[in-house]
């Protein structure tokens, strides 16, 4: 399958460096995902345009869901979502039967789930935290994820074949409590895109366009805080939760009404479990602000 690419995507794929920067600025102004480098965006677009599934792999709060939303917007595609958990079952994926009424008579009707809806409508499907699902659940849709693009609905016995333009984006946080390693059969059905943290000028732009914080000096301090947190994560001093960009943006918003140190406390520190990590982040915030 090959998409008839919208002009905005064709422009990104064919752009030179100057046009690339302009397209990035447009994404920032629209509140979309801002990739640390254009290769991430180009590679994801290229894979999707060829009908391949992509797996976004990266730390929590690095923008994987925002990345998926941006891709669906670029392709002008609605996106159905599945949020995986240990409770995920066939009904959560494919739909369920319920009692309805037709001409005042009770009838059994089938309510489609996100997988069924995305396949029948030819839209994007987003599977979040795919490694939170029980290992026996996701094989139900193995046929959806490979060249067959089909599934047999166990509730209706209907064989569903996906319409053109159907595609799948999944996201994974590795090493979290409650997650399980993806089996090779599932992993091999995806092109893997490693999504790193957003840093530096891109993070500054993101804060300016996605939060209420306008004071440039304070914004620069939050960018420095984020850099220090990310470095500490890479050094094994902090868990990935501490460097969540989502949490940092919350702190930036709060800092317009309360002192930045307290904003960091409420948005980042109090989410951590270990006292050692809490003290580490509090000391960083106190030093900067």
Count of distinct structural domains:
2
Strand order of the largest sheet: 2-5-8-1-9
Biggest beta sheet attributes: 5 strands, parallel
Structural class: alpha/beta
Radius of gyration: 21 Å
What is the CATH homologous superfamily assignment of the largest domain? P-loop containing nucleotide triphosphate hydrolases
Name of the level-1 CATH class of the largest domain: Alpha Beta
Strand element count: 9
CATH architecture of the largest domain: 3-Layer(aba) Sandwich
The CATH topology of the largest domain is what? Rossmann fold
| Series of H and E elements | HHHEHEHEEHEHEEEHEHHHHH
- Runs with pLDDT <50, length 5+? none
| Distance, first to last CA | 53 Å
Q: Give the integer mean of the pLDDT values.
A: 85
Number of helices: 13
Beta-strand fraction estimate: 15-25%
Helical percent range? 40-55%
Task: Describe what is shown at a glance.
The chain has a 5-stranded parallel beta sheet with strand order 2-5-8-1-9, with helices on both faces. Strands 3-4 form a two-stranded antiparallel sheet. A hairpin with a 6-residue loop joins strand 6 and strand 7. The model has no long low-confidence stretch (mean pLDDT 85).
Brief descriptors of the model:
single chain, 289 residues, alpha/beta, Rossmann fold, 13 helices, 44% helix
Structural features, described:
With 289 residues, this protein is α/β, with parallel strands linked by helices. It has two domains: 7-194, 3-Layer(aba) Sandwich (Rossmann fold), CATH 3.40.50; 200-288. It has helices at 7-14, 17-29, 38-49, 64-74, 90-94, 114-121, 142-145, 184-187, 200-210, 216-234, 245-254, 260-267, 275-288, and strands at 53-57, 79-83, 95-102, 105-112, 124-128, 150-152, 159-161, 167-172, 190-194. Strands 2-5-8-1-9 form a five-stranded parallel sheet, sandwiched between helices. A hairpin with a 2-residue loop joins strand 3 and strand 4 (105-112). Helix 9 crosses helix 10 (216-234) and helix 11 (245-254) runs antiparallel to helix 12. The longest helix has 19 residues, at 216-234. The termini are far apart. The model has no long low-confidence stretch (mean pLDDT 85). InterPro entries: AAA+_ATPase, ATPase_dyneun-rel_AAA, CbbQ/NirQ/NorQ/GpvN, P-loop_NTPase. Pfam families: AAA_5. Residues 50-199 form the AAA+ ATPase domain. One of its GO terms (molecular function) is ATP hydrolysis activity. This is AAA+ ATPase domain-containing protein.
């Amino acid at each position: 399958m090959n998409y008839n690419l919208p002009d905005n995507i064709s422009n990104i794929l064919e752009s030179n460096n100057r046009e690339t920067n302009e397209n990035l600025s447009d994404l920032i102004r629209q509140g979309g995902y801002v990739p640390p480098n254009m290769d991430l965006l180009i590679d994801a677009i290229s894979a999707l345009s060829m009908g391949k599934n992509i797996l976004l792999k990266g730390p929590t709060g690095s923008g994987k869901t925002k990345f998926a939303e941006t891709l669906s917007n670029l392709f002008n595609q609605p996106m159905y979502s599945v949020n995986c958990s240990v409770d995920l079952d066939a009904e959560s994926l494919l739909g369920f039967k319920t009692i309805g009424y037709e001409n005042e008579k009770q009838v059994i009707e089938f309510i489609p789930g996100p997988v069924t809806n995305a396949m029948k409508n030819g839209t994007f499907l987003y599977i979040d935290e795919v490694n939170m699902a029980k290992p026996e659940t996701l094989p139900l849709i193995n046929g959806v994820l490979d060249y067959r693009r089909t599934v047999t609905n166990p509730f209706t016995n209907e064989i569903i074949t996906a319409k053109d333009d159907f595609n799948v984006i999944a996201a994974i946080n590795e090493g979290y409590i409650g997650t399980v390693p993806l089996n090779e059969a599932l992993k091999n059905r995806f092109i893997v895109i490693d999504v790193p943290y957003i840093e530096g000028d891109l993070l500054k732009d993101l804060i300016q366009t996605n939060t209420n914080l306008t004071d440039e000096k304070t914004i620069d301090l939050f960018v420095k805080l984020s850099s220090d947190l990310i470095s500490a994560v890479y050094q094994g001093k902090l868990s990935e939760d501490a460097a969540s960009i989502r949490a940092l943006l919350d702190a930036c918003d709060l800092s317009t009404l309360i002192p930045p140190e307290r904003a960091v406390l409420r948005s980042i520190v109090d989410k951590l479990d270990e006292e050692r990590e809490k003290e580490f982040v509090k000391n960083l915030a106190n030093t900067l602000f």
